[in-house]
Amino acid sequence: MDRLNDVTNSYKKNSTFYILSLFFQEHIHEIPYITMDEVASRTFVSKSQISKYVRYLDYKTYIEFKDACVEYLESLERRRHDSKASNNMKDNSLIFAGTMIHFLNSLTSSLDYNQLELLTEQLTSANTIFVFAQGDARYLCHQIQTELQVINMNVIICDVGFQHSYDINDNDLLLVLSIDGNTFKYDKRVVKRLEKMNGTKWLISCQSNIKFKGQQLHVPIQYGKFNAYFFKYVIDLLILNLKQTY
Q1: What is the C-alpha to C-alpha distance for residues 132 and 141, in angstroms, rounded to an integer?
Q2: With left for phi above 0 and alpha for psi between -120 and 50, is residue 45 left, alpha or beta?
Q3: Lowest-pLDDT range of 54-63, 152-161, 194-203, 232-241
Q4: How many helices and strands in the chain, by DSSP H and E?
């Protein structure tokens, strides 16, 4: 969805790429079940242009693009929170708050503060910080950039497909955010590009079993549907530490 948003935000409304991106955004729940022929018929865009479009999004084929849509839809289901229809807003709020407090206490007691301190030190000493994320974590790149620019730290947000040529030197740091590790499951080409980069590399994720050529900070979560909330808490904690030490 990030890549579709990038196209609709940057292309003219009468362009083929804009028309396709808007169609896929508006019919995202249908994409796993419709063929390229049907997309061509409904958008009045040729199959060759659709193939060109999905390659531009960094997918080899339309089938691979459809698989990515399926993964995105599955991630939406994982983020659904169960609440009883009979509960009113106040009851739901109290239940939610109680659950959050319970798991937040667990997180703060099991977080690896040595790794957090090491990451803080290396971010502080980096000439330039390059931040990369896809999906739910994407907006956190902008939070990190905004917050750290206040203390005059140089932060660059990498494009969602990591396709641009970034001049990352040995004294720079590449920070990768992946809440559920989906980038490492479904976007192997991006992972290869990330790992080829120079500089110090860090990954922050709620998944602990990711193979990554760099340092990792694991966000220990016991309840998967709250991953995004507690992941942001760790990012906020990291930013607070940086502001206190830089």
Answers
A1: 7
A2: beta
A3: 54-63
A4: 11, 5
